[in-house]
Design a protein that fits this description.
alpha/beta; Rossmann fold; twelve-stranded mixed beta sheet; 12 strands; globular
């Protein structure tokens, strides 16, 4: 696949003179990309729109899954419980507007809306237009920009950036020569760094020191992603404990940015993974895809299939053919520097 080839090319796994030439060409394109991004940042930050509400941005500096959506859910639930009128603004990556209702929102916004029915999730590539709608139609006093780091048209009261602790800055090169979505200098505007995908016992002092060099005033926190329960896709009201499949063999599948984290979590619950199937991030599952997954389980005489919450949203409208498919529900909690995190977050509403 082209995606895999480009990944292996950029990461240096493909050797030889041709690969070196292509990497050099990509580096030239990355310089052009960086110049364009720099110009846009300067232009839009001259006069950003200041809205009559608080704006919290959750974003990342690299491509791939860094846990943004889980953090958005955490913030929205926390502030909603406090009594704030929250709205989440998303661009709805790979959404299909032809589908009715929530199905046309995109996988992550639809998942958020299902988990937070009391919080409106607005999908629009034009975030400013969505912001005005949230304020007018829902009387929102707080907007959360999902994937908002590269959104420069709106003034942000608080900016959180998720950093993948397993690959924080990629190869330090911008797209398409690397996986950086913007120059590292952009991190100097952040207020809170959220280190995600931290392995048990991992020493993150080196990453923290580098972030402190880039932005001494920013707070650094480390959340934990805890397995909370399993949901039966055929019977959504049926919630199972995390030890329900302990000692059992299962086929698991995912189409997310960091499949290894999901697979490790499932394994940590005592599930014996007979086969782990990986699809591209935001993969649009077809009936043929799901039939192939079910057949994979059947050929192994297994009756249990496990996937992620995001993937569950995308296959819910397909036919399961009486297969037992469960989604693993994950809950995020802030552990390191939680008190200071809450102080900075709630300080917004005392200004």
């Amino acid at each position: 696949m082209l995606r895999d080839y480009l990944y292996n090319l950029v990461t240096g796994k493909i050797k030889g003179p041709q690969a070196a030439f292509l990497r050099g060409l990509l580096f030239v394109f990355s310089l052009i990309y960086g110049l364009v991004v720099g110009i846009l940042v300067i232009f839009y930050r001259l006069h950003p729109a200041r809205l009559n509400c608080k704006v919290i941005s959750v974003g990342n500096i690299t491509l791939g899954g860094t846990g943004k959506t889980a953090l958005v859910e955490y913030l929205a639930a926390k502030l909603n419980q406090r009594g704030n009128k929250i709205a989440v603004l998303s661009r709805g990556y790979k959404r299909d507007a032809r589908l009715p209702g929530m199905q046309g929102m995109g996988d992550e916004p639809e998942m958020l809306q299902r988990k937070l029915p009391q919080v409106p999730v607005l999908v629009d590539k034009n975030r400013l237009r969505a912001a005005f709608r949230a304020i007018k139609d829902y009387a929102a006093d707080t907007l959360i920009l999902d994937d908002g780091m590269q959104q420069w048209k709106i003034f942000k009261d608080l900016e959180l950036v998720t950093i993948n602790a397993q690959d924080p800055f990629s190869n330090l090169r911008l797209l398409p020569a690397g996986f950086l979505r913007g120059p590292l200098g952009g991190l100097s505007r952040s207020d809170i760094f959220v280190l995600t995908q931290v392995n048990p016992g991992q020493d993150t002092s080196g990453i923290s020191a580098r972030l402190k060099q880039l932005n001494p005033r920013a707070l650094i926190v480390e959340p934990t992603h805890k397995a909370e329960s399993f949901s039966n896709l055929d019977k959504p009201a049926e919630i199972l404990r995390t030890d329900s499949f302990q000692g059992k063999s299962a086929v698991i599948f995912s189409g997310i940015g960091s499949p290894q984290l999901f697979e490790n979590t499932v394994s940590s619950l005592g599930v014996k993974i007979a086969q782990a199937l990986r699809f591209a991030d935001h993969h649009d599952y077809t009936q043929a895809d799901l039939d192939g997954i079910i057949e994979c389980a059947r050929t192994r005489n297994l009756d249990t299939i496990i996937t992620t919450e995001k993937d569950a949203v995308k296959i819910a409208r397909l036919k399961f053919d009486q297969a037992r498919i469960f989604s693993l529900n994950i809950k995020l909690d802030i552990t390191k520097n939680e008190a200071e995190f809450d102080r900075r977050l709630l300080k917004l509403f005392s200004l």
